[in-house]
Design brief:
Blueprint (H helix, E strand, L loop, with lengths): L1 H39 L8 H16 L3 H23 L3 H27 L6 H28 L4 E2 L9 H13 L8 E2 L2 H34 L1
Antiparallel strand pairs: 1-2
Helix pairs in contact: 1-2, 1-5, 1-6, 2-3, 2-4, 3-4, 4-5, 5-6, 5-7
């Protein structure tokens, strides 16, 4: 009886958690690839895009995990992002970029662990879990956005063709550079110059190559195991 109850609870949990992976993936992709570019071109003038990203990532974590440590990290990250928005409205400076990058980094690292457990956990492979893998991929890219922000702020000439400063297009430019590096496209319009920037680019490019292969192998293994059962 206990085993049947656990299985039923597991199915209910999957029915709730799995669809949210798809919804959150669509929302995050829309924010990254539509809202931020429009903001960079001046079509949208609203402030607080970083705060919106942190809130969206926080909702991802809350849906997938209710652990106390996760909640504490969420509170810290949302507080840093809110402080960054207030500073930007009153006195724009590089400090708000530091705070925003710190909030985004904390949320991304937490979300990577949470979503990875949901995507790679044993069980039936669903359409929503595949979307969760896409969400994880986007989160990896955003993690390096935060790291590149720190490097660009600490070393102003760390990148050639990219200036990390308080401007509407900085977030869009960093996201562009991060995903170009993650996918190893390398257009050559933005180049890492500082050793720390180059090291991060190497790491992101390696992850970008290994992640699809590891994901495919794991999903095939889980599907075969589910069919044998």
């Amino acid at each position: 009886m206990d085993g049947d109850v656990k299985k039923r609870l597991g199915r209910v949990r999957d029915q709730i958690h799995d669809p949210t992976l798809s919804v959150l993936t669509i929302l995050l992709a829309f924010l990254i690839f539509v809202i931020l570019p429009l903001h960079a071109t001046g079509v949208i003038s609203a402030q607080g895009n970083g705060f919106a990203i942190v809130l969206l990532l926080a909702s991802c974590v809350l849906v997938q995990s209710k652990r106390l440590m996760a909640i504490l990290v969420i509170v810290l990250a949302v507080g840093l992002a809110a402080a960054a928005v207030l500073l930007r409205l009153k006195l724009p400076s590089n400090l708000d970029l530091f705070l925003e990058a710190g909030a985004t980094l904390a949320m991304n690292v937490l979300l990577i662990f949470v979503i990875a457990r949901a995507v790679f956990a044993p069980g039936r492979i669903t359409y929503h879990r595949v979307n969760g893998a896409v969400l994880l991929y986007l989160t990896i890219g955003l993690t390096f956005v935060a790291l590149f922000t720190f490097v660009g702020l600490l070393a102003p000439n760390a990148f050639k063709g990219l200036s990390v400063e308080n401007s509407p297009e900085v977030a869009s430019n960093l996201i562009y550079f991060s995903f170009v590096t993650l996918t190893t496209i390398g257009y050559g319009d933005i180049l890492p110059v500082h050793p720390a920037a180059r090291s991060l680019c190497n790491l992101e490019a390696i992850i970008g190559q290994l992640y699809p292969a590891t994901l495919l192998a794991r999903l095939v293994t889980l599907e075969l195991e589910d069919r044998r059962k």
